[in-house]
Specification:
The complex is a heterodimer of chains A (about 260) and B (about 450). The radius of gyration of chain A is 19 Å and the shape is globular. In chain A, about 40% of the residues are buried. In chain A, helix 2 packs across helix 6, helix 4 packs parallel to helix 7 and helix 6 packs antiparallel against helix 7. Helices cover about 75% and strands about 0% of the residues of chain A. Chain A has one domain. Chain A is mostly helical and about 260 residues long. Chain B is an alpha/beta fold and about 450 residues long. Chain B is built from 10 helices and 18 strands. In chain B, the strands form 4 sheets. A 6-stranded mixed sheet of chain B has the order 5-6-7-3-8-9, sandwiched between helices. In chain B, strands 10, 12, 14, 15, 17 and 18 form a 6-stranded mixed sheet that branches. A 3-stranded antiparallel sheet of chain B has the order 2-1-4, covered by helices on one side. The two termini of chain B are about 30 Å apart. The chains are: A mainly alpha (about 260), B alpha/beta (about 450). At the A-B interface, helix 2, helix 5 and helix 11 of A face helix 2 and helix 4 of B.
Chain lengths: ~260, ~450
């Protein structure tokens, strides 16, 4: 397994060009091309601003609410689309696995990374709004930002590897997953702050790994004051690294069955 | 030094029959059978104990029917799947031409696809840049290389895939029946490229149905049949053995088809309303009138256009027709130039004096290649009674390759049919020469001394 993991490093160029291909191919043929990566989150943000400022204005204390929500939704989109796509990625790439000597783990990894690129494209929009609304952003805290992204990357990769490998054998996972993701979204403090969650649900929310990512993003970008959630984040980071290794282990164990099953 | 060593390789494909049909993850979890379900319910042996070695620089051919395990073998050598037991050892960089253009992305340009495909096949970016022009020229796609691959024709797609794969500069090249990718000119170019590989001492493993190619190119050949090695060694010998086997099974298939067609025709085609046939003769002879939809109970208007069937008054019956080869064995497959004899057993219900025996030979397009009868050949009939045998002997079957059908008939001199068997007997002519037409006149070529031909 570790040999294979090391071998993965040699596929850097392959992963790199496949990610580039994914990103390019997604908007190929559209008039605005790359700009959609900016426009999509921008429009999303505008819609939320409109809805929560005029249609359903919230009480004071969490303003601007749309921005708060956006801090959670942008990484969530990365997370959920990565998982949804990677559940199908081995079947979609069946031709490669069956006909070419091809390291299958590249496929889910590319999926996660391509979605990371889209996430990163969305950040300038977020930054722009933050600068407008919160010029007093703690720049020191922003050093944590790459750490949060890294933790999320490890977590997503681990889950994507497990999901993609298991879906080959259990196609139903794909449908289970799409429903699970909807539930997961609401079980994460993205559209509501953690402080508003009922006490009875706290334990459940704390067990949800994405809670800590969402809170970290919110504390770093939205709330004033120091980043107090770092202990949770570090713990989650360690757990995510473990999950990644476990995911890779599962994938590696099932690897030989892919060429015959997809 | 061997480039590929395959020793006692067995590949078992598993079929998860039960779970694939009904069970789901849920039931697997409920039963706690998640792990046991991953064990096979049913297995299929794609390869059984196959061993061979390919010396470095040799060209090795694998032949066999569909489903004999050729492609499985190639996938194992390529490392795409792992053998269930046995071991494989391959030295050097492999490039597998198994599916051309696998992994091309339709939305992006040919140029970008060349790079990504090249990287997938193990080249570095720099290596691809260096070979890029060569690849594009080889694929003959200079004008289209910037267009998205989805706009390519399938030939263009394959050519580009082939060009990339062949420019990987492998030590071992695996080829799975991919020469049929382009027009004639491109195929020649591919063959030239293989020749170049051979000259440069690369090892080639070729899976193909083109026996010609195996005979011309390969140093050694393997014949797989049902996952087992049937023959291994000199390509001419292996191909010969394979062809004999194919003939043998074609013989069986033809014999079965022939018997079936005849059984149907004979069952349904006793005379029922043919104008010339009298009521007595009908009642006298009609022992088993079937009368199915295929019943061909009247004379066809155009004798050269009729479909198979049987008609006639049956005053004389054809009891049995057998095609025999030069050893007197009943056969359905003949080599062009061999002798063929048609043995016809007839029964005259009552002695007759007006009769003629006829034979017609039709090619697959329904063209009458030859037809004759004893009356045309000026044999005056005198008497026929009881059971008799007639043999029509063709000394040399000078026909081109194909499936032929026979008419066999007994009739009066004026054509009134006693028993007419239309296209009921099938045989196949095989030929190593792929000449065309309907007839091969015995011939030979002579040249003045300054005309020379190489050996092959």
């Amino acid at each position: 397994m570790f040999q294979n993991l090391l071998r993965l490093a040699r596929y850097r160029a392959l992963i790199q060009s496949l990610v580039a291909r994914e990103v390019k191919a997604r908007y190929r043929g559209s008039v605005l091309g790359f700009f959609w990566s900016f426009i999509n989150p921008l429009l999303l943000l505008l819609i939320y601003t409109f809805v929560f400022s005029y249609v359903l204005p919230r009480g004071p204390g969490l303003e601007p609410y749309a921005l708060f929500m956006f801090c959670g939704i942008l990484p969530w989109t990365w997370f959920s689309s990565s998982l949804a796509e990677s559940a199908n990625v081995l079947m979609a790439g069946g031709n490669l696995i069956k006909k070419v000597l091809f390291p299958a783990e590249v496929l889910p990894i590319v999926t996660v990374l391509a979605n990371l690129v889209h996430f990163l494209f969305g950040l300038p929009i977020l930054v722009g709004f933050l600068l407008y609304y919160r010029p007093a952003l703690q720049l020191g805290d922003l050093a944590w930002f790459p750490v949060v992204v890294l933790v999320q990357l490890l977590l997503t990769l681990g889950l994507a590897l497990i999901l993609s490998a298991l879906t080959v054998h259990f196609r139903d996972l794909k449908d289970i997953l799409s429903n699970l993701l909807t539930f997961w979204f609401f079980a994460t403090p993205i559209i509501y702050p953690m402080s508003e969650a009922p006490a009875s649900a706290r334990l459940l929310l704390n067990l949800n790994p994405f809670t800590h990512l969402a809170i970290s993003y919110q504390e770093l970008l939205f709330y004033d004051g120091p980043f107090g959630h770092w202990k949770w984040l570090v713990a989650l980071g360690i757990a995510s690294a473990g999950l990644f290794l476990f995911g890779y282990f599962v994938f590696d164990r099932l690897r030989d069955s892919f060429a015959e099953e997809v | 030094m061997n480039a590929i060593v395959v020793s006692d390789v067995t590949k078992v494909y598993r079929r998860y029959a039960r779970r694939k049909q009904f069970a789901t993850l849920k039931s697997a979890l409920l039963d706690g059978s998640l792990i046991s379900d991953l064990k096979p319910d049913e297995t299929f042996h794609a390869l059984r104990g196959v061993s061979f070695a390919v010396p470095s620089g040799a060209t090795f051919g694998i032949i066999g029917r569909n489903g004999s395990g050729k492609s499985t073998m190639l996938k194992l050598v390529a490392g795409i799947t792992k053998p269930t037991s046995g071991s494989l050892d391959v030295r050097g960089r492999i490039s597998a031409l198994i599916e051309l253009g696998a992994g091309f992305h339709p939305e992006i340009s040919g140029r970008e696809n060349v790079f990504i495909n090249g990287i997938m096949l193990g080249l570095s970016k720099r290596e691809i840049s260096r070979r890029f022009d060569e690849i594009v020229d080889f694929a003959e796609l200079r004008d289209f290389i910037e267009a998205p691959v989805k706009t390519y024709s399938s030939g263009m797609y394959m050519r580009l895939g082939f060009a990339v794969a062949i420019h990987v500069d492998p030590d071992v090249l695996l080829v799975d029946e991919v020469l049929a990718v382009g027009d004639e000119a491109f195929t020649h170019k591919c063959l030239d490229k293989f020749g170049e590989f051979r000259r440069r001492g690369k090892t080639i493993l070729l899976v193909t149905h083109s026996l010609n190619l195996v005979e011309r190119f390969c140093d050694e050949a393997l014949w797989l049949d049902g996952g087992r090695t049937r023959a291994l060694g000199d390509p001419l010998r292996v191909v010969g053995a394979y062809l004999t086997d194919v003939e043998h099974s074609e013989e069986q298939t033809l014999a079965a088809a022939d018997a079936k067609a005849r059984a149907q025709a004979l069952e349904v085609a006793l005379p029922t309303s043919s104008g010339d046939v009298t009521a007595e003769s009908r009642s006298e002879l009609a022992t088993s009138v079937g009368g199915g939809p295929d019943a061909d109970d009247s004379l066809p208007e155009d004798m050269f256009r009729a479909r198979e069937g049987r008609w006639g008054s049956r005053e004389v019956q054809i009891l049995e027709v057998a095609l025999k080869d030069r050893h007197g064995q009943v056969s359905h497959v003949f080599q062009s130039g061999e002798s063929l004899s048609v043995h016809v057993k007839v029964l005259a219900v009552e002695p007759v004096s007006d009769f003629a025996f006829g034979i017609g030979l039709f090619n697959p397009e329904g063209v009458c290649c030859y037809g004759t009868n004893t009356h045309l050949e000026e044999l005056e009939s005198a008497s026929l009674e009881g059971e008799a045998e007639v043999v029509f002997q063709i000394a040399s079957l000078d026909l081109v390759e194909g499936t032929y059908k026979l008419d066999v008939a007994v009739h009066k001199r004026d054509g009134y049919p006693y028993d007419y068997h239309r296209l009921l007997y099938t045989f196949r002519v095989k030929s190593r020469t792929h000449d065309v037409g309907i007839y091969r006149p015995p011939h030979h070529w002579t040249f003045s001394p300054n005309v020379k031909f190489g050996a092959k």
